[in-house]
Amino acid sequence: MSQHVTSGGTVPPLSLEFDDNRLLPALYGDFDRHLARIEQVLGLTVASRGNSVIITGDPAIADIARAALQSLYARLADGLDVALAEVDAAIRLARSAGEEGAASVTAPGDDKLVIRTPKRHVSARSAGQQSYIRTLFDSELAFGLGPAGTGKTYLAVAMAVSMLTSGRVDRIILSRPAVEAGERLGFLPGDMRDKIDPYLRPLYDALYDMMPAEQVDRRLETGEIEVAPLAFMRGRTLSNAYVILDEAQNATPVQMKMFLTRLGENARMVVTGDLSQIDLPRGVTSGLRHAVSTLDGVVGVATTQMRAEDVVRHELVARIVNAYEAAEARGDDDD
Questions:
Q1: How confident is the model at residue 212 (pLDDT cuts 50, 70, 90)?
Q2: What pTM did the predictor assign?
Q3: Which of 119, 116, 108, 118 lies closest to 136 in space, CA to CA?
């Protein structure tokens, strides 16, 4: 793949040339819709001419488009798929690199970090997710913090499934504190699993997204995948397991200490939560906040803080998060 800048006009267009013509249909998208998406998001003109792409517009923004296209081309060369979600992710990552400096955003090899599961290959869609995935690969105990929509739980479950199906752990254990989000659900009918399923549904959703349904159901029956409320962790030693505590902002410091000290041989733990959505009674300290502060600097423990710009749901979610953060900073009354 080569690149050159042509002359002519006050703002010379940027020209990219791609070597492998077989990858171009997937790079451009049906009816060039991937290029149209780059145009729409960045406010540029992007045109395909055979194996070349001509980018016209502000040079700094054109450089973001160039980096995004190069990243997508490299992804295709590695045998991975490209859809509109990947185009959006490539633009987001390229924009972050342009704003903060490529060296500070993407460490060597970070763009190659891919979590492989039976149903899909999962890669970062933001700079914060890049850092988080690197932490999941490298750390025995990882804290993933951030607002809704940043992929904290989804990526943790993806890594758990990857390690289980590759034989690196024998089981997955998924847990959550059984605390209602500002509601009182009252008596729940059914057996224990029926009672706790409403709290653990997001974890199930992620599992079914990573593995065929029959595999998930079979592994749940055999105990290779276990879901349980946090209170059920007391007294256990969790060895040869990938253990995830989700919504950990709703654990108390005593519960958090109990959970973290369950870690056994050949085990990994991931603790996720959003410190802006604590549902504990007023005056009760969040165990997640306490643990992140207490364990700061401990070898083997890593914390990733994701922010509104790492939200990968609908773009309106990021704006909602920013609005709430601004209101909190102003000290607006939340009653």
A1: very high
A2: 0.77
A3: 116
